[in-house]
Amino acid sequence: MASFLSTGNLVSSTGIDQQQVSGYTIVAERLNFLRFVSHFRSVHRGQFFTTMRTTTVRKLLPDQWGYLCCVHTPDGGPCGLLSHLTSTVEIKADDYNIEEGEKILELLINKFGCLNTFSCIPFRSGRTMLPIVLDGVPRLSIESQRIHNVAHFLRNLKCSGHIIKDLEVAAISGDEQAYPGLFLHTQAARMTRPVLNLSSRKVEYIGPMEQTYLMIGITGTSDESRLYSHEEMSSMAQLSLIASLTPFSDMNQSPRNMYQCQMGKQTMGTPIHNIHGRTDNKMYKLHNPQCPLVRTNIHTENKFDEYPNGTNAVVAVISYTGYDMEDSMILNKSSFERGFGHASVYKSKIIDIGAEGIHAGKNEDKLKLGNPVTFKQNRSSGVATVPDAMYEGLDQDGLPRVGETVKQDDPLYCVIHNDDRK
Q1: Which of 2, 141, 267, 388 could form a disulfide with 115 if both were Cys (CB 3.0 to 4.6 A apart)?
Q2: pTM of this prediction?
Q3: pLDDT in tens, 5-38
């Protein structure tokens, strides 16, 4: 299990009957804050589908609109397979109380006269009874002409706070190309997102299954409430957290917006604030990050100024020949000397004292870090076998001094065998 969590590979002679045996885990890289956040707001459909020739799995289906971003996806092989959650979507983390579900069923029995026994016959056979399914289990039966009234009643209870706010109410009548019935979902690990309920003028959380059977208008459609039952809270609701940071994305072509989602996660910026106490293998930090001159509301709401990325640059687009433009850039020498684009690379090196020295096999307890100069002064019998000049850059603890400039071939540490004879 430890190997599986660290590598994401299933090591087995049988493959455990899985479609893929690798790629189950992703290392949460801290290159910058945008990359770190996007790791926890993404959904991967599986490595197996990369080998398939069909493109159906890469499409954004109607029930995914508003839950998975239509722009933020990698280009190349995993395009469409690695999708990112939108900025407004919420994942129900806590499981519901069983009494809440029973309370809803009891309310439907008393209010609408639903049958307590699941004895309905499919609608297409001529009967008028439809099932009420709670979390995948058929529980009640209801007349088909009252199914939309029940759904409207439950939505008003959601908006007023009398029942759980993220209850999913999918009312499918016999006219739809699906199995008819009233499907209620209350369990955890479901995607929900807020929309404006035009009848109650309150915020309602809906799920992917019920979204297909709702009339949701864009922002500013309140005057046409006869056509729509709900309205989007924001025009950016279909974009992910990273895609919504691009200003004037509606004035840009779609591939450029998709490229920007990837380039924004590769910029050098401010990944963390406690960088001096971290032990990451490698980390980059920009010396002079700046706030963007043009930003969206998402940038301010999510406080991305706490982790700024990149600097503002003035770009001159010049056609050299008068006909076309080449991909080139000229840096201003003065701005470069004043720190434009300067950054530091932090590299961590782990020192295992037990693996050092000739007698490290049986005498690991006698090995320690130290400076031979100090060691020779404190112990009369101690003899430094290496000239003291080699250790002038090391402190008494055998490590470089804080703030010391370490150059090529300079010693990084010194291990001393704590024995009178060595």
Answers
A1: 141
A2: 0.80
A3: 888 888 888 878 888 888 888 888 888 899 999 9
